[in-house]
């Protein structure tokens, strides 16, 4: 074996042992999820682990008593039936305890899976937006989600490991009493098989880790080929064969790499399994010789054969279970690392109170921003101010930093350089939840919740989700009322096609739902990113007529590519390459005859 391979093996074992350090954290999660079932299954498994030794001892007594009768001697039959009844009682106890263990394990499995899934969901929602815009994060999140179900087998194996260890210790006591060497031979014969299985289990973990991006890609192609959102384009552009081919190629690659590892595991595993069997049958032959030479009774022979058979089987299972637990603990590392990931955007230790009302407004002070992993400055030394009651429109080509400004205002990101002030204080000085409660935002890619209308609108202000008057008022402001009237269940109508009874809406209708969500929040700062992109011109005009009224005495910022709508703003800000090129009213910018005028004329020409 080459030096590099030896070092690799050593590192693999170090990784396994290091991974076991994460097990206490898992036990705490397990205990928190189901304390009584966990305590019960531990107690039952210990009791179950002691029963085989008792049954073997009872069997020894029965065989010795029968041997005595066979030799022509008299015995007390009551004693014989006592041992028979005891063995039956122990066997019956094993059946009952086994079912009780299964019952406890099913409770643990359900509670742990739900508890861990909730913890993962809660933790994911606490992380920064930057995490969700990182492909590597999705690999970690995907592996962490798997732990909520796949680690159930590890917990079950841990229970079996405890039970088998108790069995082994009790049986080993009987073997050692007669011959310590037998136990040593059994252990040494099983150890190589354990090491081989552990090695291939680690290779399996490494392969699984490597294949995560491929599996995510497989899931994505499956979604493209079977989702309502993509089916129209799949059919129109005849993408069926293309998607099938991409899926097939990836699937075959995953299968090929798994098959290679499985073949190697089969060959080496079979070889060392035979060695383990040789150790058992060598011990068996030794005991048979001892019995033939009359160095032990038939009862003792039966006891020892049962003990070494049980010990050999338990040793193999214990090594296998330990190896499996150690290697699954490597997967557990993915979960632990995910839960150790913390947001960088958070409230200060001693936050200041939000101003109500806002008096000085929002101000960008030399703000520069680059997305993580990128050298491009999306915003470059930006200075910009929004006064209370002002309505400001941001215009410019895609990718010029408009939506990024919105993300910074909402503290979904913090500036790379510079700062954003609210009433003269850095927005990082405020409690983040209190600060965000004063901001109502509808993004271009707003969520269409497959939930009732009530929850779709109520997402803007959870406290008003059951307030029909407030929900209807928000619907009125967003011109959603006419749509609500024709829905069979009104506010309680399920939207979307995911669940039975759901009603789907057009793009423009969904956008009105999103607008109602923003209006329900009743925030001091209202931000709309392309709020009317899916609306027809008449509906768009209606929205902005109301928008002017709704934004009175509020700071309002909206992004739009339609110059027919931005002209109603108090100020229009033209952006390019992360900087402000022009700032003024519609009339002022037209008179300046700059970038805004060119963009306006270009768009106006298409309507002539």
Please describe what this structure looks like.
The chain has 608 residues and is an alpha/beta fold. The protein has 3 domains: 243 residues, ABC transporter transmembrane region fold, CATH 1.20.1560.10; 167 residues, P-loop containing nucleotide triphosphate hydrolases (Rossmann fold, 3-Layer(aba) Sandwich), CATH 3.40.50.300; 77 residues, P-loop containing nucleotide triphosphate hydrolases (Rossmann fold, 3-Layer(aba) Sandwich), CATH 3.40.50. Helix content is 66%, strand content 9%. It is built from 20 helices and 10 strands. Helix 7 runs antiparallel to helix 9. The longest helix is centred in the middle third of the chain and has 53 residues. The termini are far apart.
List the helices and strands and how they pair.
Elements: H1 3-19, H2 23-33, H3 35-70, H4 77-126, H5 129-132, H6 135-178, H7 180-226, H8 228-236, H9 240-292, H10 298-340, E1 362-369, E2 379-386, E3 391-395, H11 402-409, E4 417-422, E5 425-426, H12 432-436, E6 439-442, H13 453-458, H14 468-477, H15 481-486, H16 507-521, E7 525-529, H17 537-550, E8 555-559, H18 563-566, E9 571-576, E10 579-584, H19 586-592, H20 595-605
Parallel strand pairs: 3-8, 3-9, 6-7, 7-8
Antiparallel strand pairs: 1-2, 1-4, 4-5, 9-10
Helix pairs in contact: 1-10, 3-4, 3-6, 3-10, 4-6, 6-7, 6-10, 7-8, 7-9, 7-10, 9-10, 14-16
